[in-house]
Specification:
By secondary structure, the chain is an alpha+beta fold. Helices cover 36% and strands 27% of the residues. It has a single domain (2-62), classed as 2-Layer Sandwich (Alpha-Beta Plaits). The protein has helices at 10-23, 45-54, and strands at 2-5, 26-30, 37-41, 59-62. Strands 2-3-1-4 form a 4-stranded antiparallel sheet, covered by helices on one side. α1 (10-23) crosses α2 (45-54).
Length: 66
């Protein structure tokens, strides 16, 4: 799954790391992308969005174009 997020920098990544590590198998944030794309493997959309919101970040799922 891919999400457009408000995770802007390495400090933000450090803050979300323990939360995402507990929710998903693998994840990565492209902070160079203007949309700050979070890519995750495993977990479910609702839990990820809710957990990030709880610590002050927004995440919106990007629908795949297939």
């Amino acid at each position: 799954m891919k999400f457009k997020t408000s995770i802007n920098c390495s400090s933000c990544v450090a803050k979300v790391k323990p939360v995402l590590d507990g929710l998903v198998e693998k994840w990565d944030v492209d902070t160079e992308n203007p949309d700050k794309i979070l890519t995750v493997e495993g977990g479910d959309e609702e839990s990820i969005v809710r957990a990030l919101k709880k610590i002050g970040y927004q995440a919106q799922k990007i629908e795949s174009k297939s």
